[in-house]
Design goal:
Blueprint: E1 5-8, H1 12-24, E2 28-34, H2 41-45, E3 48-53, H3 64-73, E4 78-80, H4 90-99, E5 102-103, H5 108-115, H6 117-126, H7 142-152, E6 156-160, E7 170-172, H8 178-193, E8 198-202, E9 208-216, E10 222-229, E11 233-234, E12 237-238, E13 240-243, H9 250-266, E14 271-279, E15 285-291, H10 298-305, H11 309-317, E16 334-341, E17 343-344, E18 350-351, E19 358-360, E20 367-371, E21 386-394, H12 397-410, E22 412-414, H13 420-428, H14 430-434, H15 441-445, H16 448-472, H17 477-492
Parallel strand pairs: 1-2, 1-4, 2-3, 4-5
Antiparallel strand pairs: 6-7, 6-8, 9-10, 9-14, 11-12, 13-16, 14-15, 16-21, 17-18, 19-22, 20-21
Helix pairs in contact: 4-5, 12-13, 16-17
Bound molecules: ligand MV4.
């Protein structure tokens, strides 16, 4: 089947990102949008665009009856769901199958298996993929939980089978609290997910979060595109992602890659997917879960492999076999991504939505900005407050970090508070630079004062330079430089 027209069932930067590849492939695009996104860039970029309802997601981006109606009316061959919204919804996938519309993604069955953490772990176990020691399947009652605890020791972790991304997790420190925690976890799981099944794992103390990008076609070919390191996160919200990881050896990379390919084959996976692992401080890895969608941080994998993941998703959805094998895929250089949010890092990351009064993107060598906004636009309150993904690519990790720091300096956003300085703090930290960090990085190293102190230091440095100006006279060439630098942002619009 040749895909000639794609409906993008998403919004913002990812809708635009998908449309750009469609355009390169000569594929027509259909946007669907809510009333809050009337003026969005992705709506203007599409060949056709249809309003599908009010801002609240349940009445627009999640309302698949409306979306399918538009797909039929516009004769779209396929739907790309992006990430979030309908992207991992097996009910939607099944509906599209019965409507004869191609989903750019895996089958409903693959989504179902991986949507259940227990089913996913069972699949992994059958294929000898390492798992964190813990219960086999759901824990039935307190007696069983206690028996497992006796075996694996404390602290342990109770997780909801229907959870994921940290939702429904509880740490149990000692035998006395296991009763209470188990009850809370099961009740929470029942009310949040409609499924009370929970399982137990040993708590891995200082883990790194490493995920492997996979790509599978409809002919049983599966390859991996190496790893992404996503340990720098705050409350399960990723802050910095990079590829490759600074701690993986070639052997470890190959072993994890093979496990990722094997679990993908086990669920007859099709398309782009991500297999998540925990890596402990002894470099043991354990399968966590599989995400059956294109991920937010996919650009770092694209940068180091030169492979356009959206193009590959579309090709395999159309039935084409992958045009390359594992040995053809090489990684080169280093890529970093930071997520720029409209949040105030000095005020507990409170969303700070409003109008982008100034919005000037960084440019230059090795910089990619995936966003969906322009100066003067309003960031809607109804959705995730991510403004942009800033990606830096260079030959080495050090150069990529320096390049990212430069790009963050160039990024000029006013009207809303952003996490840019927080991201800069993170990647410039000794622990990050040295590669010696884990998922507790933000908790261990960040406090709002870090940003306030930095602001103050900048002010002090500026006053010192200004004082120098006075002493030397403003015409002195050595005194010109810092004054110019400090004025860079305020004068740029006039340059
Ligand atoms: C764990 C863990 C430690 N031990 N499992 C959080 C998200 C979900 N995908 C799995 N998560 C974790 N599972 C065991 N047995 C620590 C985490 C975890 C984490 C994992 C990846 C990235 C960030 C994290 C932050 C806190 C906890």
């Amino acid at each position: 089947m040749v895909i000639k027209k794609v409906l993008i069932a998403n919004r913002g930067e990812i809708a635009l990102r998908i449309m750009r590849t469609c355009k390169e492939m000569g594929i027509k695009t259909v946007a669907v949008f809510s009333e809050a996104d009337r003026n969005a860039l992705f709506v203007r970029y599409a060949d056709e665009a249809y309003c599908i309802g009010p801002p609240v997601s349940s009445a627009s981006y999640l309302d698949f009856e409306k979306i399918i109606k538009v797909a039929k009316a516009t004769k779209a061959d396929a739907i790309h769901p992006g990430y979030g919204f309908l992207s991992e919804n097996p009910v939607f996938a099944r509906r599209l199958e019965s409507e004869g519309i191609t989903l750019i993604g895996p089958s409903a069955e693959a989504m179902e298996v991986m949507g259940s953490k227990l089913a996913a772990k069972e699949t992994a176990k059958r294929h000898n993929i390492p798992l964190v020691p813990g219960s086999e399947g759901a824990v039935a009652d307190l007696e069983e939980a206690k028996a497992i605890a006796l075996e694996i020791g404390f602290p342990l972790l109770i997780k909801a089978s229907a959870g994921g991304g940290g939702k429904g997790m509880r740490i149990v420190e000692n035998a006395e609290s296991i009763d209470e925690q188990l009850n809370l976890a099961m009740n929470e799981a029942r009310s949040a997910f409609g499924d009370a099944s929970v399982f137990i794992e040993r708590y891995v103390k200082s883990p790194r979060h490493i995920e492997i990008q996979v790509l599978a076609d409809k002919h049983g070919n599966v390859v991996h595109l190496f790893e992404r390191e996503c340990s720098i996160q705050r409350r399960h919200q990723k802050v910095v992602e990079e590829a490759p990881s600074s701690v993986l050896t070639p052997d470890l990379r190959e072993a994890m890659g093979e496990c990722a390919v094997s679990i993908s084959k086990a669920c007859d996976y099709v398309g782009a997917g991500t297999v998540e692992f925990l890596l402990d401080d002894q470099l043991n890895f354990f399968f966590l879960e599989m995400n059956t969608r294109l991920q937010v941080e996919h650009p770092v994998s694209e940068m180091i492999t030169g492979i356009d993941l959206v193009r590959q998703q579309i090709l395999v959805a159309g039935g084409q076999p992958l045009a390359f094998s594992q040995s053809d895929i090489k990684m080169k250089g280093h890529a970093l991504e930071v997520r720029v949010y409209a949040e105030d890092p000095t005020n507990n990351f409170l969303p700070d939505i409003g109008t982008l009064k100034t919005y000037v993107r960084p440019q230059g060598p090795g910089i990619r900005v995936d966003d969906g906004f322009e100066e003067g636009m309003q960031i809607p309150i109804y959705y995730d407050p991510m403004i942009a993904k800033l990606i830096a690519y260079a030959n080495t990790r050090e150069e990529a970090i320096d390049r990212m720091i430069r790009a963050i300096d160039e990024y000029d956003i006013s009207g809303v508070k952003t996490t840019l300085k927080f991201c800069q703090f993170a990647i410039n930290h000794d622990a990050f630079r040295s590669g010696n960090f884990d998922t507790h990085f933000v908790q261990d190293h960040f406090s709002p004062e870090e940003l306030e102190v930095e602001n103050k230091q900048n002010e002090e440095a500026l006053s010192a330079f200004l004082a120098l100006d006075l002493i030397r006279g403003v015409d002195a060439p050595s005194a010109q430089e810092p004054t110019k630098r400090s004025n860079w942002k305020s004068t740029r619009n006039r340059l």
